[in-house]
Specification:
Helix content is about 35%, strand content about 20%. The protein has about 450 residues and is α/β, with parallel strands linked by helices. The longest helix is centred in the last third of the chain and has 17 residues, at about 410-425. The two termini are about 45 Å apart.
């Protein structure tokens, strides 16, 4: 018996969506997939969310490139779901749709003063230094002392980017405007604040160790708040990673500063209370916490830290999508194992999710593979019940977009833009120089 052909749209061209396309086409050879991406370039978080001085993580791009080069998979860039395409359009052209739009917004920090000038979301800063075309090309870096709120790797990335010299970034792919911005950076001290203790902190061991790799940076872990309660000791005993993090923090506590021109201070058991200032950020108030069964409890003892900027790295948040249900509290599209469910708990036929829009912004990039596998298993279970697309011609979707005035970028177009960025890098003795504005990305991709 002939196996049914299916056409699937994957909305979101980051790792989650690309892994889903790869797993589906390998498991079901009669599937063809269009990866639909809002930006002209693919790779999502790997291109626009990973710190530029982490080239080893960007090695993932090589694997993603191999996937998108497969004949069963087509890349359609510069196509914005909700503006250029709606669900009714996708239903016409595809048998099923997988949403993998990730998370690009900052989770809010609900404290007084959060809207003062000089208070920034970490996601916006990450987008700036990664050359995301949606953010302004300039970033204010006049603050000498900065507070970073958060106990995860994004907080470390922000802190590291604020204190490393611009010239140290010339080995990376940062755009020229980012180099110029970092060259004028006035920051000397970054204070990273975590609500809990060393055993509960969410830094990865490698990220934490890398903080001290720059000769221009001293890492100072303040002993106040270096508390390990019974729950923390259990975490250390049961997790090799937690033990490595605690040991690294302890080494920093015991290491004398070298007198480097820039410093990263790590403060534990300090909870954010208020951002202070008259018309701009002038200080950051925290409350000392104590640990109770691994949780932080306020002690009433507050400290005002003189800073001129605050970066909030308390988590990412996904955004709602047109014509789809959304859980605003969890920041996800409601689903069961990847099948999208409506308010009544019923599965929306032919509609699936994977990645952070499915499970929230937790876990590393590699975790998206198992996540995508679960979603694809569900889709394959549903193959026989999928409603066939109204239009079978695979080129019809491109024609539809062109008629709507959308400048769709193809995989071949991306290849030209990729080559252009590599050529810019070669001219400057670097691996690559990223092109930033959307208009330039589109024009360069067209040769």
């Amino acid at each position: 018996m002939r196996v049914r052909d299916i056409r699937v749209a994957v909305v979101g061209g980051g790792p989650a969506g690309i892994y889903a396309a790869d797993i589906l086409t390998k498991a079901y050879p009669n599937a063809s997939v269009d990866v639909i991406e809002r930006l002209p370039a693919p790779y999502g978080l790997v291109r626009y969310g990973v710190a530029p001085d982490h080239p080893r993580i960007k090695e993932i791009i090589k694997a993603l490139h191999r996937v998108l080069s497969q004949p069963q998979i087509r890349f359609l860039g510069n196509v914005d779901y909700g503006t250029d395409l709606k669900m009714s359009d996708l239903r016409r052209f595809y048998d099923a749709v997988i949403f993998s739009t990730g998370a690009m917004a900052d989770r809010p920090l609900d404290i007084p003063g959060v809207d003062l000038p000089g208070s920034y979301g970490a996601a916006d800063f990450v987008s700036w230094y990664d050359g995301h075309p949606d953010v302004p090309r300039e970033w204010p870096l006049e603050a000498k002392e900065v507070a970073v709120v958060g106990a995860g790797n994004v907080a470390l990335d922000v802190a590291r980017m604020l204190v490393k010299t611009a010239d140290e970034q010339l080995t990376t792919e940062i755009p020229a405007n980012v180099y110029d911005g970092l060259k004028a950076n006035a920051c000397t001290d970054v204070h990273v604040f975590a609500r809990r203790g060393p055993a509960q902190i969410k830094f990865s061991p490698m990220e934490l160790r890398e903080l001290s790799h720059s000769p221009n940076v001293d890492v100072i872990v303040h002993p106040e708040g270096f508390e390990i309660d019974e729950a923390g000791q259990e975490a250390i005993n049961s997790s090799k990673q937690t033990k490595m993090v605690v040991n690294t923090l302890l080494k920093y506590v015991e290491t004398e500063p070298t007198g480097a021109p820039h410093r990263i201070h790590i403060h534990m058991c300090q909870s954010p209370v208020e951002i202070l200032g008259d018309g701009k950020v002038e200080a950051f108030r925290t409350e000392r916490t104590e640990l109770v069964d691994g949780s932080a409890r306020g002690t009433g003892e507050t400290t005002d830290w003189p800073v001129q900027a605050v970066y909030r790295a308390v988590g990412y948040l996904s955004s709602p999508l047109v014509d789809l249900p959304f859980d605003h509290q969890a920041g996800v599209i409601p689903n069961e194992a990847g099948r999208v469910i409506d308010m009544d708990g019923n599965h929306q036929p032919g509609t699936y999710v994977t990645g952070w829009i499915k499970r929230g912004p937790v876990g590393l990039i590699g975790h998206t593979k198992s996540d995508a596998s679960q979603t694809i298993d569900c889709l394959l279970e549903d193959v026989d019940s999928l409603q066939p697309a109204e239009v079978s011609d695979p080129d019809a979707i491109v024609q539809h977009l062109v008629e709507r005035g959308v400048e769709v970028t193809s995989w071949e177009d991306w290849g030209r833009l990729d080559a252009h960025e590599m050529a810019l890098g070669e001219e400057q003795g670097r691996l690559r120089v990223k092109v930033v504005p959307r208009e330039e990305m589109v024009s360069r991709s067209r040769g």
